[in-house]
Amino acid sequence: MLKDQVVRVVGAMSGTSLDGVDAAEIVTDGREHLEFGETTFRPYTDAQTAVLRAALGKWPEDDVSVAAELVETVHAQVLSGFSDAELIGFHGQTFAHDPKGRGTHQAGDGAVLAEVLGKPVVWDFRSADVQMGGEGAPLAPFYHFALAKKMQVDAPVAILNLGGVGNLTWIDPCMPLPESEGALLAFDTGPANAPINDLMQTRLRRAFDEDGAFGAKGVIDQGVVDQFLQQPFFFRMPPKSLDRDAFAGLSAAVENLSDEDAVATLTMACAASVAQGVQACPHAPERILVTGGGRRNPTLMRMLALVCDVPVGPIEHAGFDGDMLEAQAFAYLAVRVAKGLPTSAPATTGVGAAIGGGIISRPG
Ligand SMILES: Nc1ncnc2c1ncn2[C@@H]1O[C@H](COP(=O)(O)OP(=O)(O)OP(=O)(O)O)[C@@H](O)[C@H]1O
Ligand SMILES: CC(=O)N[C@H]1[C@@H]2OC[C@@H](O2)[C@@H](O)[C@@H]1O[C@H](C)C(=O)O
Predict the structure, then answer these.
(1) Residue 2 lies in a domain
(2) Is 94 exposed, middle or buried (0-12, 13-18, 19+ CB in 10 A)?
(3) If 183 and its partner were Cys, which of 7, 60, 175, 218 is the partner (CB 3.0–4.6 Å)?
C-alpha cells in the first residue's frame, strides 16, 4: 500500500461488556487524514452472550471453538453490510488477557473472515506487542492521537474509554507523531462497567444500571473503595493493562450491601480509579473526553466530575461518536498495519520500541 494512499476501511469491535459488535467505516491514510462513514451495532442475543461469557478466561488450547465460530459468524453478518470498504480491521473478542504470563487471546479467525467476505482482513492486533514485552493493550491510543490532531487542540487532553474495563490516553497534540517521545501516555484505569453489569445481572436480571438509576439512589461505602485502591495494580506505573475479570475481590466486597449501595460503591470504585490514573499523567489534561457506554451513566459522570480535578464531558463535545470510537480505532489501525506503520509504542503498551502488530489475511 502506498504511503499517501487513502483507504476506505471498516473496523469491528466486540468489547469486554459482551453486548454486541460495533462496526464503523472511516476513510484514512493511517495518519492524520480522517473522514467518518457508516456505522452499525449488532447486539448479541442473551444466548450468544452466555456462550461468550462461558469462554471468558479461556485460551486457544482450551475448547473454545463454538464461541470462536460465533464471533466469526456474527462479524461476517455485520461486515457484509460494508460493501464499499476495501479493507477490514477485525479485533475479535478478548477471552483472556495475561500479557506477562500466558499472553492475550482474541477469539475469531481473521483468515476465515477474509475468505467469507472476499476482502483483506487485518487481525490479531495484540499478540506481537505482547511478544515484544508490551501489555498488548490499550491499542486505541494511536487513534486517539489522530483525533486530537483533528480537534486542532494545542494543549494536552485525555480520552477516557469506559467500557467493561476503563482505559485512558493522555495526549500532547503538539508532538509530530504518536510514537514520538512525550506524545502519549496510555493505560487501563481499572474496571469500569463490568462489575456493575455483573451485579445487575446476578442480583436483578438486568443487563446494566440504566442511566445510573440504582447507583444514584445508593450510599457509597468509602471503606470498600479505599480498600480497592490498595490493590497492587494501582501502585504500578503506566502503561499497564487488565483482564476483564481481574478484580473479583471488588464484587465480593459489596456482597453484603443493598443493591443500590453496592452499585453506588462499584460506580465510585470506577470513578476513583480513573482519578488515580489522572494523577499519573505527565501534566493535568485540559479536559477529559469520555467515550464508551459509561458516558451514558449520569451517576458515573457525576462521580467522575467530583473526583477528577479536570472538566469531564462526553466525547460528543468534541464532535466524535462515543459509541463507535473503538471500531473506528481498529479500522485506523488496520490501515497502519497495511502500511507498515507502528500501532503501539513504549508509552502506550510498555513495548520495548514502537512496533506495528497485526496479521493481514487475504482471500485465496
Ligand atoms: N444508558 C446507560 N446507562 C448506564 N450504563 C450504560 C448505558 N448505556 C451503556 N451503558 C454501559 O456501557 C456498557 C457498554 O459499553 P461499551 O459498548 O463501551 O463496552 P465495550 O466496548 O464492550 O467494552 P470495552 O471498551 O471494555 O471493550 C454497557 O454494558 C453498560 O454497562
Ligand atoms: C485485552 C483487551 O481486549 N483489552 C481491551 C479492554 O477494553 C478496554 C480496555 O480493556 C483496553 O485495554 C482494551 O480495548 C481497547 C479498545 C484498546 O485496546 O484500546
Answers:
(1) no
(2) buried
(3) 175
